[in-house]
Amino acid sequence: MTMVHFLIKRGAKLDMQDGSNTTALMHAAREGHIDIVQTLIHYGAKVDVREGSMLLFHVAVNVQRRSLFMMLGSLGTYFAARLAASENTAVTLVRRGGGASTSTHAGPARRVVRVDLPDGEAVETEVAQVLRGWERSAELDRDLWPFDLTLVTVKSKDTEKVGTQLAQAAAHGLLVPDKSVILSLQNGMGNADVLRSALDGYPGLRVYQGLTYLGASVVDDQYVRLNGSGRTCVGPAEDPVLRTFAERMERSCNRASPDQSQGSWERVEEAVVLSDDVASMVWTKLLANAVINPVTAMLRDKNECVARQGLRPLVTEACAEFERIMKHEKGVKLLLGEHASAADFVVHVARQTGRNTSSMLADVQSGRQTEIEAINGFLVRRAHQHGVLAPTLEGLYRIILGLEAGYAAR
Question: Start and end of every Ketopantoate reductase N-terminal domain (predicted)?
Fold first, then answer.
């Protein structure tokens, strides 16, 4: 029985953060229930104990209810460390590997997450729980689920596998329809659709596609390096879970741990932006990714190489093809800001992130499968569907596939 059912059975009416405005009162038996009080305090409740024929507890859970987040992927490790620094936030980090393990099995040290920041500083934060799968969910701390938000940041090639894992999590009650949100911050297109398909048996689960300009690389187990800073955009703006996510990310900057280690977050120029037009933002990022990622991977060079004058004809043609494809997509537009053309925008992004190593270049250098299928592959398939010629985008796509085939055959 969940904590909420436990309280309701005893006459509780909880004023929760999800919009309910019922009176927050609970009548307990004459002898008192200290376990209930402890549970409420654990969940951030303000408890008003009054004398009388029976104990009366006034519970203001709506103000301080704890949020429960689950993170998957290397960038998820960064978000886990950041959110764990916020009050009333319990973060579960999901690691690669089979089986299930929790902090109680592995010891307190196993819950420590480290992030190296771009300025050379390092931040270590302790998360609430570390998992390796869902099969033994009965052994997990029941105070830490069901999850309000599950953040998916794995490579696009792993999306189908994660969708299967999330379906298992829902089957075990870790995700709850009409309560839980699954948010994809992955590169490329189609990831949210794959997750929705995997969770088709749980129609009340909300699955959204967001985007982030942050990047992180794995250094070691539960240890990542943040490669630059930038915005994270999520929506719809009125979703209460997404609003809480944005608020907790901002709040983490203003709360230091007892040893002051969390003060380092103040130097990270990162914000979570709520928007009702995330789809247009995702397409705009796709424009930059479809040019910068394959070109840097081909040339084995940093992002700034895309801004070279000699590459301008290639950039211009690739962007023109992108715009021809996008004309057939409904409800989205390119958000180019002050830039006169799509090509100008891509060159600006390449210069702004000039010293960065693109994720596709990092994959090629490491001999890993890239995300080209979810980026240029997606665009090539869309072009074929719409009857649009896109030889430049398709050429970039085929070259990266050739690179992958080359090192896969070694």
Answer: 73-237
